[in-house]
Amino acid sequence: VRILAIESSCDDTSASVCIDGRIASNYVANQKVHEQYGGVVPELASRAHMQNIVPVVDVALKQAGISLQEIDAIAFTQSPGLIGSLLVGAQFAKSLALALSKPLIAVHHMQAHVLANLIEENRPSFPFLCLTVSGGHTQIVLARSPLELEVIGETIDDAAGEAFDKSAKLLGLPYPGGPLVDKNAQLGNPLAFKFAEPQIPELNFSFSGLKTSVLYFLQAKQKEDEKFIENNLNDLCASVQHTIIQILLKKLKKAVAQTGVKNVCIAGGVSANSGLRNALQEAGKKYGWKTFIPPFQYCTDNAGMIAITAYYKYKAGKFSELDVSPTARAEWN
Ligand code: ATP
Ligand code: FE
């Protein structure tokens, strides 16, 4: 079965072709237009999706070496995301499905982030736990099978990616700051400064306090020495990153203890963080977990993860009608 998948939930336009469960192409066009605003501007994102979508689908088909007529089903991201962005992908996918008389498959973006772990050969067996850490979400998911996914913990306020980006902003780094914090942290001491870790019940997270704690700390220090940030940037990045990773790993350990599941994956944009990747591998060695991290191109937003999810939905006969609509937020099905 050959599936064409489209992802347009935020500011990346992406298309992928999946042939019998193997990702044959995964092409992503990033939108540069948002950089100057220090964040994603929804209206500009939808306009850029409209410009990008035809050429992006073209490239994905060419790279996979197949034509539109050879496609058996069309998949798209239904939710969650920016509604204007989602609408462009959904409308395009529906038009193609109608024109080609092929079935349509609607995919939940956060389920797809988790199933990105099934793309490569070295994949986790079921059941597995997945810590999904992205720009908008922080979740611990228990996966019993490809389509039986349960959120067993999540953030009550900011996402881990936001904690990275907001701290980076306080440190004077441009948006999105996560990757820059990672880079600077590699040259710094993670134990140089201490930031309070929140005490949140169950398997849930909170990151809004960290941002405030970093803000007050920097304000006090800058009062004494106006070059404090400049002179301590690497240590500050390393310490903020260390705190975020500790918060994440503590709950992951708790989730393993509660469920007895020792196959542990991470997913989402923040799983590109080198500190988190190392910490997960070390935890794996220390506690006897089998750990899995998707290749970088399947961590951040990409249509490959939508395609692999659609492949499992296709096999289970889970198709959508042409009147299906995208939604900014949605429960898991
Ligand atoms: P969602 O999936 O929740 O809707 P999103 O798709 O916008 O959100 P992703 O693209 O998965 O989010 O991830 C983007 C986030 O990942 C940003 O906050 C970014 O700063 C962060 N990020 C990317 N690389 C790194 C890194 N190396 N270290 C830390 N954070 C990173
Ligand atoms: Fe995402």
Q: Helical content, roughly?
A: 40-55%
Question: Class by helix and strand content?
Answer: alpha/beta
Strand order of the largest sheet: 3-2-1-4-5
* Averaged pLDDT: 96
Strand fraction band? 15-25%
Question: Globular, elongated, flat, extended or rod-shaped: what is the shape?
Answer: globular
The succession of helices and strands, N to C, reads EEEHEHEHEEEHHHHEHEH
**Ligands, ions, cofactors:** adenosine-5'-triphosphate, fe (iii) ion
Total DSSP E strands: 10
- C-alpha Rg (nearest Å): 20 Å
Number of H/I helices = 9
Q: Can you summarize the main beta sheet? A: 5 strands, mixed
Low-confidence stretches: none
Between the first and last Cα atoms, what is the distance in angstroms? 23 Å
Subcellular location: Cytoplasm
GO molecular function: tRNA N(6)-L-threonylcarbamoyladenine synthase activity
Enzyme class: transferase
Binding site for substrate: 132-136, 165, 178, 182, 273
What does this structure look like?
This is tRNA N6-adenosine threonylcarbamoyltransferase. Substrate binds at residues 132-136, 165, 178, 182, 273. Fe cation binds at residues 109, 113, 301. It is found in: Cytoplasm. Its cofactor is Fe(2+). The protein is 43% helix and 19% strand. 48% of the residues are buried. The protein has 9 helices and 10 strands. The longest helix is centred in the last third of the chain and has 32 residues, at 228-259. With 333 residues, the protein is of the alpha/beta class. α2 (83-100) links the parallel β4 and β5. A 5-stranded mixed sheet has the order 3-2-1-4-5, sandwiched between helices. A 5-stranded mixed sheet has the order 8-7-6-9-10, sandwiched between helices. α1 (42-64) runs parallel beside α2, α5 (178-185) crosses α7 and α7 runs parallel beside α8 (274-287). The protein has helices spanning 42-64, 83-100, 109-115, 160-170, 178-185, 208-224, 228-259, 274-287, 303-315, and strands at residues 2-7, 12-19, 22-30, 73-79, 104-108, 128-133, 138-145, 148-154, 263-267, 290-292. The two termini are 23 Å apart.
